[in-house]
Write a structure and sequence with these properties.
The complex is a heterodimer. Chain A is 0% helix and 48% strand. Chain A is an all-beta fold. In chain A, the strands form two sheets. In chain A, strands 2, 4, 5, 6, 9, 10 and 11 form a seven-stranded mixed β-sheet that branches. In chain A, a hairpin with a 6-residue loop joins strand 9 (85-90) and strand 10. Chain A has no helices and eleven strands. In chain B, a hairpin with a 5-residue loop joins strand 4 (35-41) and strand 5 (47-54). Chain B starts with a strand and ends with a strand. Helices cover 0% and strands 56% of the residues of chain B. In chain B, the strands form two sheets. In chain B, strands 2, 4, 5, 6, 9, 10 and 11 form a seven-stranded mixed β-sheet that branches. Classes of the chains: A mainly beta, B mainly beta.
């Protein structure tokens, strides 16, 4: 199985901050990497697919980058609604695997 | 817009078989080039992909759960379902249904339900 490791596991930030979350794959996965936002009691939301393509309806302050084994999710200016947990996920190999999550808190 | 909603029992006993249903509203489970998937999240842990089914009925399962898992589609009720047998406490989790979109290997979960908590306890 391809292991996905996110860092940091948790992150404290303030409204207006620029934050970057990193995801590392245990082997090269090209750009078969997606990012999700999850809030308690709500349906998780797709933010980025194919490493850098913004999902329709997602604010442009979210951006993704990377290829091979190292990927980033950047939020350019944090908004109050962005405090949530973020997950990366690879679709290069089966089984599909997720990172352990990064909790973004105030 | 298309929405997904999980339903099923919240409490199960060890050795029983879990049955969960995901109802698709605002769209058809039979239309489009979509897979329909189940994912779970153990308490305080990350996400684990269980498997998915194509509109044709072809299924793909996580090898770690394959022997206990069945995913099926019911087009007449616009639903898809998960059965997980021989439950243990380790199967306690929030179970999500999700739609899979994409192509050429670029598969992503673009629509999710809110999740259904299943607790396995005697």
């Amino acid at each position: 199985d391809i292991q996905m490791t996110q860092s940091p596991s948790s992150l404290s930030a303030s409204v207006g901050d620029r934050v970057t979350i990193t995801c590392r794959a245990s082997q090269s996965i090209s750009t078969f990497l997606n990012w999700y936002q999850s809030k308690p009691g709500m349906a998780p939301q797709l933010l980025i697919y194919a490493a850098s393509t913004l999902q329709s309806g997602v604010p442009s302050r979210f951006s993704g980058g990377g290829s091979g084994t190292d990927f980033t999710l950047t939020i350019s200016s944090l908004q109050p609604e962005d405090f949530a947990t973020y997950y990366c996920q690879q679709s290069y190999g089966t089984p599909i695997t997720f990172g352990q999550g990064t909790r973004l808190e105030i | 817009q298309v929405q997904l909603q999980e339903s099923g029992p919240g409490l199960m006993k060890p050795s029983q078989t879990l049955s969960l249903t995901c109802t698709v509203s605002g769209g058809s489970v039979s239309s489009g080039n979509y897979y329909w998937s189940w994912i779970r999240q153990h308490p305080g842990k990350g996400l684990e992909w269980i498997g998915y089914i194509y509109t044709s009925g072809r299924t793909y399962y996580n090898a770690s759960l394959k022997s206990r898992t069945t995913i099926s589609v019911d087009s007449s009720d616009n639903q898809f379902s998960l059965k997980l047998s021989s439950l243990t406490a380790a199967d306690t989790a929030v179970y999500y249904c999700a739609r899979v979109s994409g192509s050429k290997g670029y598969w992503y979960f673009d629509l999710w339900g809110r999740g259904s908590l299943v607790t396995v306890s005697s």
